Amino acid sequence: MPHQTRAGIVAAMTAADPSLSLDVLTDALYQELRRIAHRERLRAGKPMTLQTTALVSEGYLKLRQSAGWTSEEHFLASAATAMRHALVDAARARLSQKRGEGIRPVALDEQHDMPEANDDEVVRISDALAALEALDPRLVKVVECRFFAGYSEEETGRILGISDRTVRRDWLQAKAWLYRELQG
């Protein structure tokens, strides 16, 4: 295939086949996936067992179980959700280990100025999102797009098929609900 721009590949694929190929999307959007994975790692406390590239790979493996992405945004939102699930799975696995008593290795090349969430917090946030999803799945999708994938209100609205105003209202409602849930 001759060299094409990222937007060109996604546009051509969408026109040719509404069910986008995971491998082609991953190749075309790899740098964006790395950006999302890096942000996810920072938000989840930078667990040393999952580096950025490993998190992209874990997300890829989770995405292989689904299909039918209709756009670049839809794929990236799904990837952010898959990466969040991979981080939560890793946190749960670390919590279940008896050795090490919670001591984590410190890499010499990592930045140490970011506040780190511990595994308990990652799992509590995941559990709170699961409880919120039982009440209102759209609120969770807004949180995944805005917080985990880093999309703007406009991008989130386009992905979810709702207005910017609805995104803003849902975002405020979800944050308030999560705050109450995590405080109690």
Describe the SSE topology:
Elements: H1 6-16, H2 22-28, H3 30-43, H4 52-63, H5 72-96, H6 119-135, H7 137-148, H8 153-160, H9 164-183
Rg for CA atoms: 17 Å
Helix content, binned percent? 55-70%
How much strand? under 5%
Terminal CA distance: 54 Å
Question: What is the domain total for the residues?
Answer: 1
Shape designation = globular
User: What average pLDDT do the residues reach?
Assistant: 76
Helix/strand/pairing category: mainly alpha
Low-confidence stretches: 108-115
Count of DSSP strands? 0
Helices, by number, come to: 9
Largest sheet: none
Q: Which H/E pattern describes the elements?
A: HHHHHHHHH
Description:
With 184 residues, the protein is mainly α. The chain has one domain. It is 68% helix and 0% strand. Helix 5 (72-96) packs across helix 6 and helix 6 (119-135) crosses helix 9. The chain is globular. The protein starts with 5 loop residues before the first helix and ends with a helix. 30% of the residues are buried.
Considering the chains and any ligands shown, give keywords for the structure.
184 residues; 0% strand; mainly alpha
